[in-house]
Every structure is written in structure tokens, then in C-alpha cells.
Amino acid sequence: MEAVTKMASERPVVIFSKSSCCMSHSIKTLLCDFGVNPAVYELDEMQGGREIEQALLRLGCNPSVPAVFIGGELVGGANEVMSLHLKRSLIPMLKRVGALWV
Predict the structure, then answer these.
(1) Which regions of the chain are under pLDDT 70?
(2) Rounded to 5 degrees, what are φ and ψ at 81?
(3) pTM of the model
């Protein structure tokens, strides 16, 4: 769990993902289309990915990916990110943490 917290706080936006997950791809595409440059950790391609996935589940991410952290805080998965976007709250949140300049 400590590793997840450390990784999540290294950049304004961090996404824990799996390369084969279509929802992870959708969230990465959405954020990149806004101009965000998130840190992306592909759990199925990295050493220790299974342990990180278990830590994400313990944090309440179910399913475990995508798990999106903004400003070091867990926002949630695809449903939560899309809900924020539809409520027009996502972009202001990204601006607050310095992930977007305009």
C-alpha cells in the first residue's frame, strides 16, 4: 500500500492500468485528449504489478483498474472519472493540481 501511495503522489495525475483493459484505455485517451500527461503504470507489464493490484483493491478500487489518482488522492475508476467529467468537475480538478494550464 505504501508503494501505491508513493507512486500516486509522484505526478499530478497517475493511472494504474492494464494494457488489455478497454476502460483503462478509454480513461487514458480522455485525459490525454484534454492535454494531461499522466503517469501510467501498466500493472500487467511491470514487476510487482500483482501486489500493486491487491493494494488498489484494499484501497477500495473495484475493479482494480483503471485506478485514477489526481493530486495524490484516489478519484476512483472509470465510472467516477466519467461522472466528474459529465458534472464538469474534472477539468477544474485537473487545473487545480497543475495537470492542465489552460
Answers:
(1) none
(2) -65, -45
(3) 0.94
